[in-house]
C-alpha cells in the first residue's frame, strides 16, 4: 500500500511530542490518522514512547495493522475532533492500551483536513471526569438527553459512593418501558408501587436518594423516557443469544446488553466489583465510565472537524 510522508509540520510535531513525553511523564502518543502514513517510521521518530493510532478509515487501519502498531478502530461517523478523541481514549482504556490515570499526547488534524497540525497534552483522569454531553448525544435515542444524563449521573454516583462503605452494583433501563416491563419480571415487591407519578420522577432529589438506597436490591430500575421510575427490582428476561461481551462481565452486564438489543431502551449497568458504569445500546457497550474521585462535570465542547 502506498504510504503518505508526514508533512514538515507533522514531522516537527512528532519531535515535540517526543520531548514533551520525556519531560511530562507521558505514557503514550495517540495519533488520529486520516492518511496511511509509514507508522513504523512514526514510531521510530518517537523513540521509546508508545504510539497508538486511531482511525475510522479502512485503508489507514490496514496500514496500522501491517506496521504492527496498536490500533484503535473508530466508528465511521462524522464527529468533531473532540468527540473522536474522547472516543479513541475510551476505546483505548477499554482495550487496556491505556490506564485511566495516564497522561497522553494527542496528535491530530485540528484545523486543516488531512494535515496533522495540532498537539494536545491530556490528563486522562481529568478528561474522563469532563465527559462531554456529546458522548451521550451521539447515542441518538428516543430518550431525551437530559433524562439520559440524570440516569447516567446517578449510576456514576452509585458506582463511586456505594452505600454505607460497601460497593453497590445495579442497573437502569431507560426508555421503551412498556416493552421492557413485558420482557422482565418482579423479583421482590416493587418499593415504588403505589406512589404517584410525581413522587417517582428521577429529577427529584428525594427520588434519587431512594434509588441510591434501593440500588442494593437485586434487579433493575425501569425508567420511562420522560424520567419516571416505573419499577425497581425487575429481573430482565431478554435472550442473550447473538451477543458478544468482554470476558469478565457477568450476569448483570449480559442482561443489560440483552435488553438493549431486544428493545429500544438504553441500559446503564454499574459494576459492583469496580464501580465502572457501562452504557449499552443495541446489545453493545457504547460508553464506559470509570469511577472518579471527584464528581463529574458535564460540559459542551465545540471543535468542529475540518471541512470535508
Ligand atoms: N437478568 C437479570 N436482570 C436484572 N439483574 C440481574 C440479572 N441477572 C443478574 N442480575 C443482577 O446482577 C447481580 C450480580 O450478578 P453478576 O455478579 O453475575 O454480575 P456482573 O455482570 O459480574 O456484575 P458485577 O460487576 O456487579 O459483579 C445479581 O445479584 C443481580 O442483582
UniProtKB/TrEMBL annotation:
Enzyme class: transferase
Catalytic activities: 2 ATP = 3',3'-c-di-AMP + 2 diphosphate
Database matches in Gene3D superfamilies: DNA integrity scanning protein, DisA, N-terminal domain (3.40.1700.10)
InterPro entries, A to Z: DAC_DacZ, DacZ_P, DisA, DNA_integrity_DisA_N_sf, DNA_integrity_scan_DisA_N
Annotated ranges, domain DAC: 129-291
PROSITE patterns in the cross-refs: DAC
Key words, A-Z: ATP-binding, Nucleotide-binding, Nucleotidyltransferase, Transferase
GO MF terms held by the record: adenylate cyclase activity; ATP binding; diadenylate cyclase activity
UniProt keyword annotation of Nucleotidyltransferase present: yes
EC number(s) given by UniProt: 2.7.7.85
Annotated HAMAP family: DacZ (MF_00840)
Protein name: DNA integrity scanning protein DisA
Organism per entry: Maioricimonas rarisocia
Lineage, uppermost ranks: Bacteria, Pseudomonadati, Planctomycetota, Planctomycetia, Planctomycetales
Gene field: disA
Amino acid at each position: 500500500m502506498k504510504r503518505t510522508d508526514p508533512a514538515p509540520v507533522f514531522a516537527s510535531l512528532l519531535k515535540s511530542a517526543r520531548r514533551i513525553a520525556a519531560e511530562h511523564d507521558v505514557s503514550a502518543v495517540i495519533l488520529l490518522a486520516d492518511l496511511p502514513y509509514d507508522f513504523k517510521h512514526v514510531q521510530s521518530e518517537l523513540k521509546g514512547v508508545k504510539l497508538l493510532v486511531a482511525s475510522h478509515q479502512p485503508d489507514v487501519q490496514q496500514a496500522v495493522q501491517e506496521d504492527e502498531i496498536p490500533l484503535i478502530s473508530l466508528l465511521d461517523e462524522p464527529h468533531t475532533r473532540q468527540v473522536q478523541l474522547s472516543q479513541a481514549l475510551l476505546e483505548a482504556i477499554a482495550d487496556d492500551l491505556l490506564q485511566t490515570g495516564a497522561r497522553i499526547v494527542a496528535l491530530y488534524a485540528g484545523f486543516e483536513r488531512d494535515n496533522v497540525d495540532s498537539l494536545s497534552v491530556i490528563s486522562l483522569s481529568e478528561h474522563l471526569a469532563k465527559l462531554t454531553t456529546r458522548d451521550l448525544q451521539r447515542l441518538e435515542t428516543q430518550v431525551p438527553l437530559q433524562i439520559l444524563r440524570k440516569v447516567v449521573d446517578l449510576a456514576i454516583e452509585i458506582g463511586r459512593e456505594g452505600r454505607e462503605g460497601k460497593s453497590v452494583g445495579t442497573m437502569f433501563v431507560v426508555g421503551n418501558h412498556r416493552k421492557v416491563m413485558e420482557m422482565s419480571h418482579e423479583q421482590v415487591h416493587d418499593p415504588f408501587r403505589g406512589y404517584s407519578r410525581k413522587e417517582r420522577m428521577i429529577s427529584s432529589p428525594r427520588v434519587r436518594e431512594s434509588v441510591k438506597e434501593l440500588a442494593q436490591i437485586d434487579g433493575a430500575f425501569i425508567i420511562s423516557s420522560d424520567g419516571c421510575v416505573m419499577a425497581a427490582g425487575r429481573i430482565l428476561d431478554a435472550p442473550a443469544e447473538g451477543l458478544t461481551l468482554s470476558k469478565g462481565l457477568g450476569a448483570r452486564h449480559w442482561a443489560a446488553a440483552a435488553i438493549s438489543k431486544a428493545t429500544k431502551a438504553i441500559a446503564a449497568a454499574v459494576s459492583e466489583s469496580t464501580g465502572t458504569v457501562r452504557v449499552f445500546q443495541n446489545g453493545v457497550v457504547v460508553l464506559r465510565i470509570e469511577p472518579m474521585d471527584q464528581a463529574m462535570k458535564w460540559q459542551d465542547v465545540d471543535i468542529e472537524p475540518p471541512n470535508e
